[in-house]
């Protein structure tokens, strides 16, 4: 299913309308000079008016990736009602009001895509691409996949905002990505899951653009041949062959008292592709790893932390690791792993933080995959 929308260019903020001084002049004692605004020194972006345009190729490619994420979500959200009947949704516990919310979230994506397109100078209609989805067997399957799609869309966008040269565009995209986080919460509630399985909302995990592209590219089947390329790396795919189901027998609900489905010490079975597989629209992209060593570590990216565990029984492109424990700030604090965690296979265990996470990319052999913790 393909959905497109006319592109509306954001216009300039209207200038302040002036009036003839004689029309509003009053006679009286001049007011005292007001005190200066109370604010600290420092900060950026106060010396010139915002342009809301990409300044560098990094800006353009980051926002362009974000545009493809929004278009995927637009198609995916409106695809659900085409795949399943109203009675199918109702049997899954999602009545007419919930179905309206799903369609409304699709309309939100039109606004997000239009905003991003305008900031990269897109002067034509939004790209018309076709998308491939997993073989959903139920509304539950569809909702679970939308939870994953919104998860990596949110994480990938959070990851690049602080690195954009054009911080005025970052401010605008930040406003949009807050909505994406709410959409993901809705999909979790529709699965009957605990809606916010993180210590604080500020600890929503961020990932790099190439990690996001690795997860997104397989969904895009066809696009116009003259569409600009996405210039990020697609890493080889990683599969968690015993990824736990997040099935909650209670059905949709506002919240649940079950916050985790797995626990430290669980054996996690992994299988990964070699480099060289085609991906993305028209199969015009090729997966690639730039790691120089062997598969040695599993990297778990969750909240503020990247945690490494050794790989065991590595044979060809398979092996297993053990789900780690620990707390965000050490023992006695919230679990370092929760929600949908990003899992990768690497050849080394470099120390990275959310802001310099890209330093791990030269060590990635495969992934990320989304691993279900809670």
UniProtKB/TrEMBL annotation:
Protein name listed in UniProt: Uncharacterized protein
Name its species: Vararia minispora EC-137
């Amino acid at each position: 299913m393909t959905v497109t929308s006319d592109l509306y260019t954001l216009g300039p903020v209207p200038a302040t309308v002036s009036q003839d001084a004689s029309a509003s002049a009053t006679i009286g004692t001049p007011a005292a000079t007001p005190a200066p605004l109370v604010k600290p020194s420092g900060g950026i972006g106060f010396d010139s008016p915002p342009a809301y345009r990409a300044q560098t190729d990094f800006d353009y490619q980051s926002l362009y990736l974000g545009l493809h994420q929004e278009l995927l979500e637009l198609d995916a959200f409106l695809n659900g009602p085409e795949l399943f009947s109203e009675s199918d949704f109702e049997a899954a516990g999602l009545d007419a009001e919930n179905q309206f919310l799903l369609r409304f979230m699709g309309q939100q994506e039109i606004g997000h895509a239009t905003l991003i397109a305008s900031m990269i100078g897109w002067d034509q209609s939004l790209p018309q691409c076709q998308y491939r989805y997993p073989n959903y067997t139920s509304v539950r399957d569809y909702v679970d996949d939308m939870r994953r799609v919104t998860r990596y869309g949110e994480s990938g966008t959070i990851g690049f905002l602080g690195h954009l040269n054009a911080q005025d565009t970052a401010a605008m995209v930040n406003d949009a990505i807050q909505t994406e986080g709410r959409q993901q919460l809705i999909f979790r509630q529709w699965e009957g899951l605990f809606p916010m399985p993180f210590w604080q909302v500020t600890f929503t995990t961020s990932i790099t653009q190439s990690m996001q592209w690795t997860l997104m590219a397989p969904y895009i089947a066809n696009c116009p041949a003259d569409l600009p390329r996405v210039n990020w790396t697609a890493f080889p795919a990683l599969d968690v062959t015993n990824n736990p189901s997040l099935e909650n027998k209670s059905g949709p609900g506002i919240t649940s008292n079950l916050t985790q489905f797995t626990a430290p010490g669980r054996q996690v079975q992994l299988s990964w592709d070699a480099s060289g597989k085609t991906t993305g629209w028209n199969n015009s992209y090729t997966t690639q790893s730039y790691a120089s060593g062997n598969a040695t570590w599993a990297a778990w990216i969750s909240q503020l932390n990247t945690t490494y565990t050794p790989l065991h029984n590595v044979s060809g492109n398979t092996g297993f690791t053990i789900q780690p424990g620990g707390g965000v700030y050490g023992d006695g604090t919230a679990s370092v792993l929760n929600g949908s965690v990003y899992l990768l296979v690497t050849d080394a265990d470099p120390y990275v933080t959310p802001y310099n996470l890209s330093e791990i990319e030269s060590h990635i052999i495969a992934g990320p995959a989304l691993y279900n913790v809670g």
